Amino acid sequence: MSEASLTPLSARSGGPLTGRLRVPGDKSISHRALILGAMTVGETTISGLLEGEDVLNTAGAMRALGAKVENLGGGTWRIHGVGVGGFAAPAAPLDFGNSGTGCRLVMGAVAGCPVTAIFDGDASLRKRPMRRILDPLEKMGARVLDQAEGGRLPMTLRGATDPLPIEYETPVASAQIKSAVLLAGLAAPGETIVIEQEASRDHTEKMLKHFGAKIVSKPHGDHGRRIVLQGQPELEPANVAVPADPSSAAFPLVGALIVPDSEIILDGVMLNPLRTGLFTTLREMGAKIAEENKRDDGGEDVADLRVSFSALKGVDVPAARAPSMIDEYLILAVAAAFAEGVTRMRGLKELRVKESDRLEATADMLRVNGVKIEIEDDDLIVHGMGTNGVPGGGEVKTHMDHRIAMSALMMGLASKEPVRIDDSAFIATSFPGFVDLMKGLGAELS
Ligand code: S3P
């Protein structure tokens, strides 16, 4: 996708959102299932895979590295893996499109194999920092042969012939850094150890265990974890059922909270506690979110969420909660705009290095639609409009960022004037079918 072919879209207020839907499979789990399937000798079947562009690019990369990857239809995929250390040198550059997760996790997986690969992506991904991944991977023996200025893509990486196990403390709470080190550590002898001061999402650890690796995660300090992986395991093929993505569910969920008289049910949403910071925060704001039919799906807690229109109030969101809702601040800011009183979101530095500078982009999205905001250091302060309502009427620049696009559209469904986005194309990176699903609930999108 390029910025040249823009597909604008507008959202306006209409009737309530009502009905029942299942959002697509979790993006984090989908990437990992493809990568671990490819690193296992034998056949892995994945059901409910997210077929968004980010994940399809990871599937393409696994194919280019030698795994057999088949789409069996209906969200079911089969991977015939090559084993730990078994990747072949790809014939062409690996193109990760918009996806930092796909790119960084595959860098880790490649770092443990003696192959050379070129990593590339779209204009957004080419702006994002890769040093945070390369620092530990170089300690493990990988080499950067070529890179764009500032440690950016396109980048040529040579994996280690004899990868070394390391003990590494991540400089920021990042599941991508942690996962890259663990995936490289699979090929190293002995123990690879990752320490994080704030626990980030643990899908890599859980899935490594599911594939038979020996990995132990223990609390570290107040909010952190110490994770110890035994290297060179024989990974066993394991089937993966991907639950519905809470980060995608967040958009219709907030839509239902802010559009008067709405009530929707979101089926089978994953409730991994390291992903549910948004739901905690919204409940503190007064959101009516009921969990029904709680169950286990593919090793994760899931529930159907019944969400009803709610009078929201502003809250103070602690910095320690950021890792569990790092992708959700944009849509939380939309909820905060409709709340009574001030919401302060603390410690948002990492938002500056996502698909766009999400701190500035969130501020712009609200400002152009008549909502007062301030940025103080790494905190975002939103002055909720409450019963006065959100004026709307603005055009939001999406900066090749799917989550800005979906957040701004949700805002438009409840503001006085329609909200327009300059480009809806990037929604397909994480949430294919978003527009039709939302229209099915009654959303006025055109
Ligand atoms: C992800 C980790 C997070 C998140 C991203 C998905 C993952 O990034 O923002 O959308 O699947 O590991 P960081 O680890 O860089 O915070």
From TrEMBL:
Residues annotated as domain Enolpyruvate transferase: 13-436
Region (Disordered): 1-24
Amino acids binding 3-phosphoshikimate: K27, S28, R32, S174, Q176, D327, K354
Enzyme Commission number(s): 2.5.1.19
Chief place where the protein resides: cytoplasm
GO biological process: amino acid biosynthetic process; aromatic amino acid family biosynthetic process; chorismate biosynthetic process
Superkingdom assignment: Bacteria
Active-site residues from the entry: D327 (proton acceptor)
Location of this chain's protein in the cell: Cytoplasm
PROSITE patterns linked to this entry: EPSP_SYNTHASE_1, EPSP_SYNTHASE_2
Residue positions binding phosphoenolpyruvate: K27, G100, R128, Q176, R358, R403
Listed Gene3D superfamilies: Enolpyruvate transferase domain (3.65.10.10)
Main enzyme class: transferase
Keyword Amino-acid biosynthesis in record: yes
Polar residues composition-biased segments: 1-10
Pathway assignment: Metabolic intermediate biosynthesis; chorismate biosynthesis; chorismate from D-erythrose 4-phosphate and phosphoenolpyruvate: step 6/7
GO molecular function terms attached to this record: 3-phosphoshikimate 1-carboxyvinyltransferase activity
Keywords in alphabetical order: Amino-acid biosynthesis, Aromatic amino acid biosynthesis, Cytoplasm, Transferase
Catalytic reaction list: 3-phosphoshikimate + phosphoenolpyruvate = 5-O-(1-carboxyvinyl)-3-phosphoshikimate + phosphate
GO CC terms in record: cytoplasm
Assembly and oligomerization: Monomer.
Family of this protein: Belongs to the EPSP synthase family.
Function: Catalyzes the transfer of the enolpyruvyl moiety of phosphoenolpyruvate (PEP) to the 5-hydroxyl of shikimate-3-phosphate (S3P) to produce enolpyruvyl shikimate-3-phosphate and inorganic phosphate.
Protein name, entry field: 3-phosphoshikimate 1-carboxyvinyltransferase
Organism of origin: Undibacter mobilis
Lineage: Bacteria, Pseudomonadati, Pseudomonadota, Alphaproteobacteria, Hyphomicrobiales
